[in-house]
Structure prediction request, 235 residues.
Amino acid sequence: MQRVSRILAASFCLDAAQAQADITGEVALLSDYRFRGLTLSDGRPSLQANLDWSGGNGWFAGIVASTVRLGRSETVAGIAGQGYLGYGGRLTRTSAWSGGLSAYTFPSTGRGSTDYQEGFLRAGSERWQAGLYLSPDYYAGGTPSAYLSISTSRPIGERFRAFAQAGWLVTGRPDDAQPSDRRSQRFDARVGLAWDLGIVIAEASIVGVTRDNDRCRSDPDACKATVVVGLRKLF
Prediction:
């Protein structure tokens, strides 16, 4: 998810070393829920909510819930969740690092569980971020994954902020004899603009993903480039 202003700073623990424990939250309504370039809401609107806790000693944790529509031949609607726990600290006066573990859970689509876990390591500031996410069992498919993300955001005046993100996902093992386990990769990108309206933050972005990979060849509708608009309320 894209966040702006204080949410970006908090997620990288920029003031965790000096601040007291704090709880922040967000609710969002999006025209399409895109995760690493792919739709998880079947191209339909999604309602999301998250709660973040940051301690004054560098520890942080949070939970995220999103409405999703999964499956190909038979769509299953439900709630997907994410929980995470990590620790972070300063690199310089204006940059920080964080690392930890995330766990994802999804509604069952009749093909067994797709829940999985991954570790992450991130570094950045309010204006730029980079992260590496590693899983030994991506979407419970029996194959490892690595996802590299680089993003940036820049203020435009007092109420606008431009943001961009690019990601590279690699799954599977090289030279694997099993077709389902062979290495596959895809790239995704997002470019957008956020507008602080005071009560809520409005945003619009263009999301795209390369389609010459196994997932997009088998489910091309999930990979269509699209414009995502949304409203976010921070508290």
Notes: Helices lie at 6-11, 214-218. The mean pLDDT is 87.
